[in-house]
Amino acid sequence: MTLPRFYPIFDDVSWLRRMLPLGVRLVQLRIKDAPPDALRAQITEARDLCRAHGAVLVVNDHWQLAVELGCDWVHLGQEDLDDADLAALRRAGLKLGVSTHDGAELERALALAPDYVALGPIYPTILKKMKWHQQGVGKLTEWKSRVGEIPLVAIGGMSVARAGGAFAAGADIVSAVTDITLHSDPEARTRAWLAACG
Ligand SMILES: Cc1ncc(COP(=O)(O)OP(=O)(O)O)c(N)n1
Ligand SMILES: Cc1nc(C(=O)O)sc1CCOP(=O)(O)O
Ligand SMILES: [Mg+2]
């Protein structure tokens, strides 16, 4: 299966209601700090919306709920991997995306045979504090030579204008958060992304 090249990340299912009808076909639900019932309801609705639109839903962090609710993909960072039952994930047939930021993290990720590898932050991000400032697009070229056929996701400070450079450097997929969510017209921005990644 070839994944779509545009991979927006949202923190609430209401964004999926708005963006899936525009043609988004790969999306991550990244919810931090929601009460258990609300989290379950959000993931359930996101799962059903994505199925109805023929889109791939990636659940960030909450792998147990993803398994329980019959989702297809999870994204785990390095700290998440410390606690996750990867055998249970695989037994349940879920696909796995993994974050990487340096060579040691990439080695660890590759040993898990992930379904995609993310490298970030390519540019500075305002979404969260990180110990890495910016990797630069050149690192995408190095990462692509190391991941081979595994899809490579560029994340962190990505914008429509920066997407082409990331693809040219070796990214297969470009992911973005605030370039869309903080835009004055998120729908128009999403359409621009879809055109840039088409
Ligand atoms: C596509 C993608 N890449 C990286 C991340 C970051 O995951 P993680 O390091 O676990 O940090 P949180 O997003 O959980 O704060 C991601 N979510 N998606
Ligand atoms: C969630 C996340 N993970 C990153 C990593 O490098 O692992 S960068 C990032 C934030 C991406 O948000 P924006 O597109 O607004 O910069
Ligand atoms: Mg995480």
Q: How are the SSEs placed, and which strands pair?
A:
Elements: E1 6-10, H1 13-19, E2 26-29, H2 36-53, E3 56-60, H3 63-68, E4 73-76, H4 78-83, H5 86-91, E5 95-100, H6 103-111, E6 116-119, H7 138-147, E7 152-154, H8 160-169, E8 173-176, H9 178-181, H10 186-197
Parallel strand pairs: 1-2, 1-8, 2-3, 3-4, 4-5, 5-6, 6-7, 7-8
This protein binds the ligand Cc1ncc(COP(=O)(O)OP(=O)(O)O)c(N)n1, the ligand Cc1nc(C(=O)O)sc1CCOP(=O)(O)O and magnesium ion (MG).
GO biological process, one term: thiamine diphosphate biosynthetic process
Protein name: Thiamine-phosphate synthase
Keywords: Magnesium, Metal-binding, Thiamine biosynthesis, Transferase
Question: What does it look like?
Answer:
The protein is of the alpha/beta class and 198 residues long. Helices cover 44% and strands 18% of the residues. It has helices at residues 13-19, 36-53, 63-68, 78-83, 86-91, 103-111, 138-147, 160-169, 178-181, 186-197, and strands at 6-10, 26-29, 56-60, 73-76, 95-100, 116-119, 152-154, 173-176. Helix 8 packs parallel to helix 10. The protein is globular and about 40 Å long. It starts with 5 loop residues before the first strand and ends with a helix. The mean pLDDT is 97. The structure holds ligand LCLJCK34, ligand 3NM and magnesium ion. Residues 60-61, 77, 80 line the site of magnesium ion.
